[in-house]
Amino acid sequence: MDNGSSAAIAQSLRQWLASAAPGRQLPSTRALVAEHQASPVTVQRALRSLTAEGLVESRPGVGSFVRAQRPLRTTDHGWQTAALHAPATRAPEVSVALRSAPNDMIALHTGFPDRSLLPERLVRVALTRAARGDGAVSRPPVAGLPELQAWFAEQAGASAGDVVVLPGSQSGLGTIFRSVVGAGGPVVMESPTYWGAIRAAAQAGLRVVPIPSGPGGPDPDDLDRALEESGARLFYAQPTWANPTGAQWSRERADAIGDVVRRHGAFLVEDDWAHELGMTAEPMPLVTRDQDGHVLYLRSLSKSVSPSLRVAAIVARGPVRARILADQSAEALYVSGLLQTAALDVVTQPGWPTHLRSLRHRLRDRRDLLVAALAHHVPTAHLTAVPTGGLNLWLQLPDGTDVTMLARDCEAHGVLVAPGHEWFPAEPTGAFLRLSFAGPDPDSFDHGAEVIGEALARASG
Amino acid sequence: MDNGSSAAIAQSLRQWLASAAPGRQLPSTRALVAEHQASPVTVQRALRSLTAEGLVESRPGVGSFVRAQRPLRTTDHGWQTAALHAPATRAPEVSVALRSAPNDMIALHTGFPDRSLLPERLVRVALTRAARGDGAVSRPPVAGLPELQAWFAEQAGASAGDVVVLPGSQSGLGTIFRSVVGAGGPVVMESPTYWGAIRAAAQAGLRVVPIPSGPGGPDPDDLDRALEESGARLFYAQPTWANPTGAQWSRERADAIGDVVRRHGAFLVEDDWAHELGMTAEPMPLVTRDQDGHVLYLRSLSKSVSPSLRVAAIVARGPVRARILADQSAEALYVSGLLQTAALDVVTQPGWPTHLRSLRHRLRDRRDLLVAALAHHVPTAHLTAVPTGGLNLWLQLPDGTDVTMLARDCEAHGVLVAPGHEWFPAEPTGAFLRLSFAGPDPDSFDHGAEVIGEALARASG
């Protein structure tokens, strides 16, 4: 089945339809087969897709016809303003990191690894196998498939019964913020930190208490003061290759922070988003040394396995796990058994460690290429650190640079970059760009850096 | 690949492992192949699963060994009590309707249709096809795949741009309650109504304002008063084969309720959960007659296509859609492209309407069988109505029956039933059971009804 070709036929027909009179008959399947050199199945797939879009009407045994378009409506939705009130939190637009980019743009903004970095064969085989198994038509337990729970537990040195499987880690953030803190309550976060966590906290109505975080992670004294002053019982952090800074906490730093958290009777959300994305260092999850349930460990497979396998888990010891499970069951009911089966299949294949070894090298090569290109073309910018894991660089630009304008200028020249302010829970402390070395084709890095350098020159010129 | 057989091998090895000393070598793959008459691939799959569970350790080139078990720990998690505070809402346990049942129980409690009622072949073919396509390794737009948006829009007489695709309709409930109402705000609901909606509202911190609802739906005057007195701007309802009552609103009732909603400048959440589950009537979604964005239309494919295809959508016209999309993007980021592709594939196949026609008859036959069995064995109970669609009956028992005790008695005799109180936002107005005719084998209906009748006799005896 050639999906690309069916999409191309649909696209070509859409153009034809744009100027065709309602009621007019479309070329026959046979004619379309000949015109596009495609199989009848592919042509029918394109026609079905146009039917689903309401552009074409199919009369069985007769053919396909241009559908009469509904007249355009203009409706006054003004009444909704009173019903909706003002949003509790500033309704955020969709994050820059989630933007889909046209093929001809250099997508340095993206938060997701390129398809060439995914274990594509393992994923397709696992999905095909899962499509034949029980998972395709049955409903798994609310907390997850026992075998997948056991796998996540093993990763964290915990028991399968401590695990709640999630439809992606973003959903886990919402669940933790709602169920452990609740609207109006405080949460301490590093600054800068993952935009998705800032957004989930805002959506749950939490008050974010930021503490500064550098290349070695946050200062335990800052955390101590923040917990003391705010009364917060939750600290959200990414100890391993933090997004966006790439920071990894040393063993000593991790222990010191663990002590502060314990002393305050607080929870640490350890968002281990980049566990499989090490380049020149190893992950050392804090959860494996947690004795008494202070660490809520969040682990996702969407970035390293495939964005289509939206499977993650929280490992939580003690009564907090019941609180988390209750929220997840109210929010999601359960996670697709098919996706759980396929995800477990991928990470238990012999090909998985092989893939991870190769990924390690490819990420490192990409990182080094982008670092070199930036050093060459953007000499006035400063990398706070060369990360030892993760997917991106955190580039500081000269003070006073208007990064929003700069990003717009870059986009006009075919390069997408992410202005750093989305990663700050409060006002940014400097002018930053987050640049992905895992998204775009490495061959485009040099030109991408050049465009950034030129835009920066214009901005300061 | 025979999954059943690999699960059986794992189960047999688990029993062996329970009494085996740590460090002892497992039988070789070859020996297991011979013993279980299975392929080496199947045996290796069983071993991988035990490895993932931490029971077995594999030493490449040597064999598999019984893993040393961690000593059991008892940990004092008492500190979490102070950190968690009391829950904002009574933390609900997992609903009865979600309980997985052992194979030898008669599962009249379940909220999900039996596998034999699903379009299993269409689902497997669609998933296999999707495993080969782009959706397996790419990330779709936040609001959903355009073709799937178009399909949902077509169902509601709306535009593709009005649609937000969701990872299941339960997630949509949370999103609507959080983003349209917000913690502390009121929402009007039918009573009884879907337990998942009651739970999602509680989790979002909403105040539920119940109005009574009978076999014809709620009284528009009751709704008028409830909106007036509470100031609520949101009414959640299931106008088509409500869960649990089976009620379908007449055209006149729907118009009268629509008028009340409009007059109050309020939204109606139309949860069209049973759209494909009609037996002797047709669905008539209110959204198709909504002119100015008062209806938030919720439609899921998990019940009719497969529980593994967690795909649903909200159709919302006007600014409210931006509010909904912002919450979904903070909660879920996006919905698996693989599941979206496969779901669209199923519902655009010629086999889909054929399946729905056959489903219609099979549901009706099952319904009639269970109705007859109850009339015979539980003559003192009363069906408020014989539903024309949906998956269950709503059985009223004599006043004063302790349904919790009754359910426990039935369970002891091999029959699972759902006590009605989970479907009431407040105190139940009578003694009810919700009984699924779509879950268990119809051959068991007679015995199931007999057990209920005997338990009822004991309860009142």
List the helices and strands and how they pair.
The structure is a homodimer of 461-residue chains.
Chain A: H1 3-18, H2 29-36, H3 40-52, E1 56-59, E2 63-66, H4 79-84, E3 106-107, H5 120-132, H6 146-156, E4 163-166, H7 169-181, E5 186-191, H8 195-203, E6 207-214, E7 217-218, H9 220-230, E8 234-237, H10 251-263, E9 267-271, E10 295-300, E11 312-315, H11 320-331, H12 337-347, H13 351-377, E12 382-383, E13 392-397, H14 403-412, E14 415-416, E15 418-419, E16 431-436, H15 445-460
Parallel strand pairs in A: 3-14, 5-6, 5-8, 8-9, 9-10
Antiparallel strand pairs in A: 1-2, 4-11, 6-7, 10-11, 12-13, 13-16, 15-16
Overview features:
461 residues; 16 strands; 15 helices; 41% helix; four-stranded antiparallel beta sheet; eight-stranded mixed beta sheet; globular
Question: What does this protein structure show overall?
Answer:
- The structure is a homodimer of 461-residue chains.
- An eight-stranded mixed beta sheet of chain A has the order 4-11-10-9-8-5-6-7, sandwiched between helices.
- Chain A is an alpha/beta fold and 461 residues long.
- The model of chain A has no long low-confidence stretch (mean pLDDT 92).
- Chain A is 41% helix and 15% strand.
- Chain A is built from 15 helices and 16 strands.
Largest sheet of chain A: 8 strands, mixed
Strand content of chain A: 5-15%
Widest β-sheet, arrangement of strands of chain A:
4-11-10-9-8-5-6-7
**Assembly state (oligomeric):** homodimer
Query: Looking at the structure, what is the overall shape of chain A?
Result: globular
> Whole-number average pLDDT of chain A?
92
What's the N-to-C terminus distance of chain A?
53 Å
Total DSSP E strands of chain A: 16
| Proportion of helical residues of chain A | 40-55%
| Greatest chain-chain contact | A-B, 107 and 107 residues
* Unreliable stretches of chain A: none
Give the count of helical stretches of chain A. 15
Radius of gyration of chain A, Cα only, in angstroms?
A: 25 Å
Structural class given helices, strands, pairing of chain A? Answer: alpha/beta
